[in-house]
Specification:
The complex is a heterodimer.
Chain A: H1 6-13, E1 26-32, E2 37-45, E3 51-59, H2 62-75, H3 80-83, H4 88-94, H5 103-121, E4 132-134, E5 139-140, H6 141-151, H7 156-163, H8 173-193, H9 203-224, E6 227-235, E7 238-245, H10 253-268, E8 274-277
Parallel strand pairs in A: 7-8
Antiparallel strand pairs in A: 1-2, 2-3, 4-5, 6-7
Helix pairs in contact in A: 1-2, 2-5, 4-5, 5-7, 6-7, 6-8, 9-10
Chain B: E1 9-10, H1 21-27, H2 43-63, E2 70-73, H3 76-90, E3 96-100, H4 105-115, E4 123-127, H5 137-143, E5 148-152, H6 166-175, E6 179-183, E7 202-206, E8 217-221, H7 236-239, H8 247-285, E9 289-291, E10 302-307, H9 312-321, E11 324-325, E12 327-328, H10 331-334, H11 341-345, H12 350-353, E13 356-360, H13 367-387, H14 391-394
Parallel strand pairs in B: 1-11, 3-4, 3-5, 5-6, 6-7
Antiparallel strand pairs in B: 2-8, 7-8, 9-10, 10-13, 12-13
Helix pairs in contact in B: 1-8, 2-8, 8-13, 9-13
Classes of the chains: A alpha+beta, B alpha/beta.
């Protein structure tokens, strides 16, 4: 059984914006029944280039349905220019994450959005012009390269998880590895050309970054469980927070603090941070 | 007769089964007071040895074998591997294996790997199946050669329940002097088996498919069949399988086989009737459905139905909300990206392969449970089809 987040379950059981806009301004059709998932996204765009409505129909598993539902929620009210920058990771994050084998569901959402925007603008999608690498799922080299770059993929298995390429007969694994090597070499080249200076963060930068991660990621996740969090103090590497709402007094709050909050902050700010709870 | 928490409707008995209360009761003393090693000399250890001897009789009784032909193993997969490797090593000059395209991974993966061995290359013939999942016997006859070391064909398919004519196939193999193995983990306990009257050389069965615990299996080795052990070690099982015996689980398996023999009629009357009610109910109340597998040559407890234009994992998760346990041949449930190799071999169209659901019943299921599935599933399918971009254009 997959370990789906509550948000995935909720959007699967009660999907939002199901259907088809009859006089849509943009239509995006991606996937196929043979591949096991498909999504038809229809959008309505007003004269200011704002997406005023979005509806979807999806054939696929729970995470495909949830990704589609979340996609429509995210883009409603968005300007086309902003929607263009939406990544599959934005969809996955909004769902509190997807199992890695299911990341391709979020990619399908992003692809449908791009197709719908291209249709709205009367443009041709660049991805469709690439060369098919994976015959089983009809994935092109451009799609694979893009997934590698956007998601920092490092193995063939990653590529399969994100694009499905290589998930069938497996004959394209060598080609996928070659694309991967190419991309890794390229990114190593750019890194060497402009060596990144490892700069020590100032105390202020550190606090700002911690605040940002709490706001963007940690608080929304805790809120799903009716909890909340507040930053109290940062002293060197010691971060003091207070847990609110149903997190306060929850017997698993210590696990939340160490296993989730501290982990997130270490990943995204500094790996020496220690998170402690403020106790009155 | 309920062994599960009352709210669970368990219809996934081809995946695993509940341990029967009688089975648990029989095995517990061998996890508690009688822990002696059956190979030891004192009386205390003899309790274990005697219990094992009784279990061997019980297993032999269910499948019409002699007690000396029963070797206890750790699972069905070990039994399958042991049989196939044994044949390949006893006949090192032979390079050919005959099997089917619809085997369980226990046999399928082993054959695939043998074909890709570096250095030594085996040649594998995978028999094609018809659209209803049955085998083409002429293709089978034609596939056998002097180079064939072993034939391995499952007795009944785990996904569709389709039964293969392994008795006839074993006879044909024997005429050619070829060893015959069958993975019978789905058949044992569900249909009568009398190995004394067959030419089958090796048969694998698994405890947890017939209300014994996981981690216990049997390899039947016909008397006189050429054999070489897979696990080398002590003299256990007359030197045919090294390793201290899993006494408690062996006792459990024995009791489970005895129960299965007693339940054989129930399985083929009451369980079959429940399965038929479920199947007919779903086929008549939901449009655009397909039955996968031959309706007649089939296990009494299994039904595999495809709901077109919807995806299996989504169906299962909705069933799960009603505490109904079933399984699917859809790609998404397995983590692989392609639907079941069994349904693909049968040529089930993609519109249907992704939306296949298998219900596998046991004597513990009730009519109320079947009614519950018949009540909720049509609504689930309708809801998911409402979401499906392929439904509207294909619904008529």
């Amino acid at each position: 059984m997959w370990d789906y987040t509550d948000a995935v379950k909720e959007h699967f059981i009660n999907p939002k914006n199901v259907g088809e806009i009859k006089d849509a301004d943009g239509v995006g059709n991606v996937g196929s029944i043979a591949c096991g998932d498909a999504l038809r996204l229809t959008i309505k765009v007003d004269e200011n280039d704002v997406i005023t409505d979005a509806k979807f129909k999806t054939f696929g598993c729970a995470s495909a349905i949830a990704s589609s539902s979340m996609l429509t929620e995210l883009i409603k009210g968005m300007k086309i220019e902003d929607a263009k920058n939406l990544t599959n990771d934005d969809i996955a994050k909004a769902l509190g994450g997807l199992p890695k084998e299911k990341m391709h569901c979020s990619v399908m959402g992003r692809e449908a959005l791009e197709a719908a925007i291209a249709d709205f603008k009367g443009a041709i999608l660049p991805m469709a012009q690439g060369e098919v690498v994976c015959e089983c799922f009809g994935v092109t080299d451009l799609e694979v390269i893009r997934a590698i770059r956007e998601n920092q993929l490092s193995t063939v298995e990653d590529i399969t998880n994100f694009t499905k390429a290589g998930g069938g007969c497996g004959r394209c694994h060598e080609q996928l590895q070659a694309l991967l090597d190419e991309q890794l070499q390229e990114s190593a080249g750019t890194a060497a050309a402009a060596p990144k200076k490892i700069k020590r963060m100032t105390a202020l930068e550190k606090i700002k970054k911690i605040e940002e991660v709490i706001e963007r990621e940690i608080r929304p996740t805790l809120k799903m469980d009716h909890g909340d969090i507040q930053l109290v103090d940062v002293d060197g590497d010691f971060v003091t927070v207070s847990l609110r709402g149903s997190c306060a007094g929850c017997h698993s709050s210590h696990a939340t603090l160490k296993g989730y909050v501290e982990k997130k902050l270490r990943e995204q700010v500094l790996d020496t941070l220690v998170v402690e709870e403020d106790r009155p | 007769m309920s062994t599960q928490a009352p709210e669970i409707i368990y219809m996934d008995n081809n995946a695993t089964t509940a341990i029967a209360p009688e089975v648990l009761e029989a095995m517990l003393p061998y996890l508690q007071e009688y822990y002696g090693n059956p190979s030891s000399m004192y009386d205390f250890a003899r309790y274990s040895a005697l219990a094992m001897a009784k279990a061997r009789e019980q297993v032999a009784g269910l499948i019409g074998a002699h007690v000396d032909e029963i070797v206890f193993t750790s699972c069905g997969t070990e039994s399958d591997s042991t049989a196939i490797f044994s044949a390949l090593r006893r006949f090192p000059e032979k390079n050919h294996i005959v099997t089917t395209r619809v085997e369980h991974p226990a046999v399928k993966t082993l054959c695939d790997n043998m074909e890709n061995l570096s250095g030594r290359k085996y040649h594998v013939t995978r028999l094609q199946v018809e659209a209803d999942g049955t085998l083409d016997m002429q293709q089978y006859r034609d596939s056998l050669t002097d180079d064939t070391a072993i034939v391995s064909v499952m007795w009944a398919n785990n996904e569709t329940g389709v039964i293969f004519p392994v008795e006839e196939m074993a006879r044909i193999a024997k005429e050619r002097g070829i060893l015959f193995h069958t993975d019978a983990v789905q058949a044992v306990g569900k249909i009568p088996i009398n190995l004394a009257e067959t030419a089958i050389d090796f048969l694998a069965l698994s405890g947890h498919k017939l209300h014994a615990p996981k981690g216990i299996g049997v390899l039947y080795i016909r008397k006189g069949a050429p054999y070489m052990p897979f696990l080398n070690g002590g003299h256990q099982e007359h030197g045919r399988r090294g390793g201290t015996e899993n006494v408690a689980s062996i006792v459990a398996l024995g009791r489970a086989c005895e129960l299965a023999a007693a339940n054989m009629e129930v399985e083929n009357t009451r369980v079959r009737a429940l399965r038929d009610k479920l199947e007919n109910g779903l086929l008549t109340s939901i449009p655009k459905v397909l039955l996968n597998g031959n309706k007649h040559m089939r296990l009494p407890n299994t039904t595999n139905i495809s709901f077109e234009y919807v995806e299996g994992e989504a169906i299962l998760l909705h069933l799960n909300r009603h505490h109904i346990c079933a399984s699917s041949g859809s790609a998404c449930t397995s983590g692989s990206l392609e639907p079941s190799h069994v349904l693909r071999a049968m040529g089930v169209p993609f519109t249907a392969a992704h939306g296949s659901i298998r219900f596998s019943l046991s004597p513990y299921n009730t009519e109320t449970e079947v009614d519950k599935v018949l009540e909720v599933l049509p609504e689930i399918i309708a809801e998911l089809r409402n979401l499906s971009p392929f439904w509207e254009e294909n619904s008529n």
